[in-house]
Write a structure and sequence with these properties.
By secondary structure, the protein is α+β, with helices and mostly antiparallel strands. The chain has a domain at 58-76 and 92-180. It is built from four helices and four strands, in the order H-H-H-H-E-E-E-E. The chain has helices at 14-30, 41-59, 98-116, 123-132; strands at 140-146, 149-155, 163-169, 175-180. The relative contact order is 0.11.
């Protein structure tokens, strides 16, 4: 190995130094350690939370057009919330904001598409698929096998919203529907 005798500052500008520091932190978190013998779970959890928040914003990006005059929320032209509950206990218009209704459609489409491609959807396979989409473990609840179907809930609450999704992974029969989570506090599996 050839030693570098030029100071590192000669290779980096102010923006590059910050980028290098961020990449180093991510590398440490990805390796599961922070150099202190600790598992790095706090760092990993913080970086996972940040990535999850970015993913939620990206998924809900088409819903940005749902803000009407004076900051009021209105549905995008192609989105309409159901006027009747889908299932007993399903959310009503008053329980979810327009943004949550719009975001629910976005989440449902991407989750259904990914899970339909999972052969023999076991809880472990469903968790891996949801993780690959950016949903973190602490927001995945109630994963359980029910015959050839795996049931699950996702806590998608953000920015004061109450959105959650209830899903069944069953190959081509996969389905995901919106549900309402408590406004604050811990997530409880919704019916």
């Amino acid at each position: 190995m050839t030693p570098i005798t030029t100071p590192i500052s000669a290779f980096t500008g102010p923006g590059r130094t910050l980028t290098a520091a961020a990449l180093a932190a991510l590398a440490l978190a990805g390796c599961g350690g922070n150099g202190s013998g600790d598992s790095g779970s706090a760092t990993r959890s913080t970086s996972e939370q940040a990535a999850f928040a970015v993913m939620l914003d990206e998924v809900a990006k088409p819903c940005a057009s749902t803000t009407g005059p004076e900051g009021e929320q209105s549905l995008a032209p192609t989105e309409t919330p159901p006027t009747e509950p889908i299932l007993p206990g399903a959310p009503t218009e008053a329980q979810l904001s327009d943004r949550d209704w719009c975001a629910s459609v976005q989440h449902e489409q991407r989750i259904i598409q990914a899970l339909q491609a999972v052969p023999d959807p076991t809880p472990a396979k469903v968790r891996r698929s949801l993780n690959a989409l950016g949903y973190i473990d602490e927001r995945i609840h109630g994963l359980q096998q029910d015959g050839k179907v795996t049931r699950f809930h996702l806590d998608l609450r953000e920015k004061g919203g109450r959105l959650c999704e209830a899903g069944t992974a069953a190959g081509e029969e996969t389905d995901v529907v919106p549900c309402v989570a408590p406004a604050t506090g811990s997530f409880e599996k919704q019916r």
